[in-house]
Amino acid sequence: MKAKIKIYPKGRGREVYRVIAVDADVATFRDLCNFIVFDFDLDSMFHMYRFVFSKNIWGGGPEIEKGSPDMNIVLSKYSYLPKTFYFHYDYGADLLFVITIMSAPYKGEITAEDGIDLIKSVGDFQEDPDYDEDEDDDE
To answer: Going by C-beta distance under 8 Å and a sequence separation of 6 or more, which residues neighbour residue 74?
Structure first.
C-alpha cells in the first residue's frame, strides 16, 4: 500500500509541515522516525520518542516506544494504524507531531530505498524558539 501523509508539529500545521509519499509495505516505524527527526532538524536520536495511536498521549493507549522491536515493523503490518496518529519526541520538551494519512492509495512512484519520498516541505521548525544564543549566563 502506498499513501500520502502529512506531518506537522501540533498547532503549527499551516506554517510548518511535510508531505511525504510512503510505501507502507517497505517503510518501518523506525524509517518514519528517522525522517521526522532529520527532516525537522530535531536535536538528536538520543531523546526518548514514541508513536502514539490515541489522542491522549499519556492515556495508556497503543504505542510503539524507542527500543521496541515494533519499531522495525513495516507500517502496513501494524494492526492498529488509525488515519491520524502522533510522534511524541523528547518527553522533557514534550514535542508532539501529528501524522495524518491524507490519501491511500497513492498513485505516484516512490523511489527512496526506505520507502519514504518527500513531496512538499513548508517552513522551518525550531525545537526551542525561545532560546536566545546571545544570553549571558554569567550575570
So the answer is: 24, 25, 26, 27, 28
In a domain, 100, yes or no: yes
Query: What confidence tens digit (pLDDT) does each residue in 45-60 have?
Result: 788 999 999 888 777 7
Whole-number Å distance between alpha carbons of 45 and 131 = 20
pTM: 0.86
The CA radius of gyration of the chain, in Å to the nearest whole number, is 16
Distance (Å, rounded) from C-alpha 33 to C-alpha 42? Answer: 11
The CATH number for 62's domain is 3.10.290.30
Domain total in the chain: 1
Cell of 69: 522491536
